[in-house]
Specification:
The complex is a heterodimer of chains A (500) and B (172). With 500 residues, chain A is mainly alpha-helical. Helix content of chain A is 73%, strand content 1%. Chain A contains 23 helices and two strands. In chain A, β1 and β2 form a beta hairpin. Chain B is mainly alpha-helical and 172 residues long. Chain B has two domains: 78 residues; 77 residues, no CATH class. Chain B has a two-stranded antiparallel ribbon with strand order 1-2. In chain B, α4 packs antiparallel against α5 and α5 packs antiparallel against α6. The longest helix of chain B has 27 residues. Chain B is flat and about 60 Å long. The two termini of chain B are 40 Å apart. The chains are: A mainly alpha (500), B mainly alpha (172).
């Protein structure tokens, strides 16, 4: 079946007012969350994930992907108006956007950010639709050793790249794996680290862990911001509208930046921030007006926004085909997939599951269209969101975390788990230890271990025999080792450079 | 900033390298215990294991890996610690974070006895003041509106019964 046919089937399968309404609601919510300084798309998806627990997969993903796309774009609003990126991926946008705002061209900058985000998002969706079935077909040849090393690859790469401190990233991954051991062993039901507690036999589920790691930990950290006297100067949404001629002038720039975003997004452990800066730097080098960069050029906004939204679809490629999330937000989406009973891998692209997956792809396109529509209509309104006082916002976020965790399982045990992990997450964030590897390791831990044990049992307990005659597994393992070495060398060089 | 926030303006400032070393030491001790005694004591061997592959195999490997990584963390922290103190990064732990955490603990322990509406109202009220709010009417408005809206949303849209606690007579 061709990609177009898949997409048409996806659209027909996902078509329905409820699905579209959830996608629209998610997109609006995402833009608001992205526009609020301190709240990221990852936090937004984490907080609202429990609400999707009782929904069908299509509306549930329409809602979550809407938050993801909207959140990625929404970050640019605060970046342009108050020089504070709402999300890390909007940091590059702030360089040019705020300068433009100071010159009274905020409206033009915001509109360019919106259109570039849309272009990036759509190109990313197209890459997802075309590439993922091919990768899934290739992955169907994989067995236990390949899946084991793939899981290991995903965890170690995210751990080593996400932090800027490889050791701490890997320790965070070990913490996540340790959490995944708690409960009844999935192969022979042996009790592991339950300490005689019946409640702990159920193990550590995804929802309390991700809410604690990405929302509660952040809330505890941001509580301290009250002592920092920061006077934010909010620029007004004024000036001329972006002309069609100006938009078209940078079409090539936007396509190249989107493709950069797609490529980076498909590599695990990267994310929107890296994509935006890479696209921005590339645009600067390729530009005929290099001297204008940093002083408020619309070209820079087009590049960084197309780059960071170019990640949104592409990051789902390794997630859906191989079960390896590209960044923190897709690690959360992996949890959402598991909750819905959708196990990532080639199986998702066959039979009944394929309809659901292509339906989700279709909704991702719809979310980008909604982002363009709502962004255009509600721009002045979303700009006002940056003004919401913290004393209103923080109690609501805290309440959403707590009620969401409880509602997902209706057990106090889950809330207690959330409390413990939230305390750990606070210390992790304080010590610059990334939380994404911990969540990823918790989610992937069970399957990685299962593949290892099954693979070992099949080869009479020999690790060497398990990998002999498996060139793909050996290649992935070699890539993992090489990337870890590169990461370590880069870090040592960075430390020495800082010392000098 | 309100009086509560001012009263909680206490913090501990520590050298980042020192914290890294202490944390590294803690992780090392914990994982060493888990890799040796902990694995045999808290992880069952299970039945039907073949070729030495058991529920203890993978956890033990990870505990050992964490031990090695924590030693690396201590070494790195020590190297930083020996450098000049002026260039050293610091880590600050504020009392307000503990207060927010205790607010969450309060919610968890009052959810069943008091019920969601009351427990959530209390938690949001405390959080409002901890976030620097100053006006009572605003605090009550936010807490009441959110509690009522979320209660209705979970009950009608998601069909989830949240605990009613002391309000069982009214809400049932």
């Amino acid at each position: 079946m061709g990609a177009f046919q898949n997409l048409i089937e996806g659209f027909s399968f996902s078509f329905g007012w409820y699905n579209y309404m959830m996608a629209a609601f998610g997109t609006v919510l995402g833009i608001i969350i992205g526009a609020l300084p301190g709240l990221t798309a990852t936090t937004g998806v984490s907080i609202f994930l429990p609400l999707t627990f009782y929904m069908d997969p299509i509306p549930s993903f329409g809602f979550l992907l809407g938050i993801y796309c909207g959140g990625t774009y929404g970050g640019s609003i605060t970046a342009i108006l108050i020089n504070t990126p709402g999300t890390p991926s909007a940091a590059a946008t702030a360089i040019e956007g705020y300068e433009m705002s100071k010159k009274g061209k905020a409206l033009k900058a915001l509109e360019m950010a919106l259109y570039a985000s849309f272009v990036g998002g759509i190109i990313s969706c197209v890459s997802l639709i075309f590439i993922s079935p091919l990768l899934a077909a290739f992955a169907s040849k994989f067995g236990n050793p390949e899946y084991f090393v793939l899981g290991l690859f995903g965890i170690s790469i995210v751990a080593s790249l996400a932090a800027g401190n490889m050791i701490k990233g890997l320790i965070a991954a070990c913490f996540g794996l340790t959490l995944s051991f708690i409960g009844l062993d999935h192969i022979n039901a042996a009790q592991r680290l339950t300490f005689g507690s019946t409640a702990m036999q159920a193990g550590i589920t995804t929802i309390p862990a991700l809410i604690a790691l990405f929302a509660c930990g952040e809330l505890l950290l941001q509580g301290e911001d009250i002592y920092q006297k920061v006077d934010l100067e909010i620029q007004a949404v004024k000036g001329e509208h972006l002309k069609f001629k100006e938009f078209i002038h940078y079409w090539w720039q936007m396509i190249v930046s989107s493709l950069i975003g797609c490529f980076i997004g498909a590599v695990p452990g990267t994310g929107g921030g890296i994509a935006a800066f890479t696209a921005y730097n590339f645009a600067q080098k390729a530009s005929k007006h290099k001297e204008e960069f940093g002083k408020g050029t619309i070209e820079g906004i087009a590049a960084s926004e197309a780059g960071n939204n170019g990640v949104t679809g592409a990051t789902l490629i390794p997630l859906l085909t191989l079960g390896i999330p590209g960044d923190a937000v897709t690690a959360v989406l992996l949890g959402a997939l598991m909750i819905q009973g959708l196990t990532p891998g080639p199986g998702l692209f066959r039979g009944e599951y394929a309809k659901t997956i292509f339906g989700i792809f279709a909704l991702l396109i719809v979310c980008n269209i909604f982002m363009l529509l709502f962004g255009k209509i509600g721009l002045p309104l979303f700009a006002k969101v940056t003004d919401i006082p913290k004393e209103i916002l923080q109690p609501i976020v805290l309440a959403l975390c707590c009620v969401g965790t409880y509602a997902a399982s209706k057990r106090i045990y889950e809330l207690r788990v959330m409390l413990v992990i939230a305390a750990v997450a606070y210390f992790m964030k304080k010590l610059k230890m990334p939380t994404a590897p911990a969540l990823l390791a918790l989610i992937l831990g069970e399957t990685v271990e299962a593949y290892l044990r099954r693979g070992l049992i099949a080869k009479r307990g020999s690790l060497i025999k398990m990998f002999s005659g498996r060139p793909i597994a050996i290649t992935i393992f070699a890539i993992t080792v090489v990337m870890l070495i590169f990461s370590a060398v880069g870090e040592i060089r960075g430390t020495k450079h800082a010392d000098d | 900033m309100n009086k509560l926030v001012k009263a909680l303006d206490r913090k501990i400032v520590l050298r980042a390298s020192l914290v890294d070393m202490v944390l590294g030491g803690f992780i090392f001790a914990l994982n060493l215990f888990l890799a040796t005694i902990g694995t045999s004591k808290f992880i069952e061997e299970g039945y039907g294991n073949k070729y030495g592959v058991s529920p203890r195999t993978f956890p033990r490997a990870i505990f050992i890996a964490a031990c090695v990584l924590s030693v690396m963390m201590i070494i790195r922290g020590f190297a930083e610690f020996r450098k000049k103190k002026e260039t050293e990064k610091t880590v600050q732990f504020h009392l307000i974070s503990l207060a927010i955490f205790l607010d969450m603990v309060l919610f968890v322990f009052t959810l069943i006895p008091l019920g969601y509406p009351v427990a959530n109202f209390i938690m949001m009220t405390i959080m409002y003041w901890l976030s620097g709010g100053k006006k009572w009417w605003k605090c009550i408005l936010v807490a009441v509106l959110f509690t009522a809206a979320s209660w209705l949303f979970f009950r009608t849209s998601l069909k989830i019964q949240l605990p009613v606690g002391i309000l069982s007579g009214i809400l049932k």
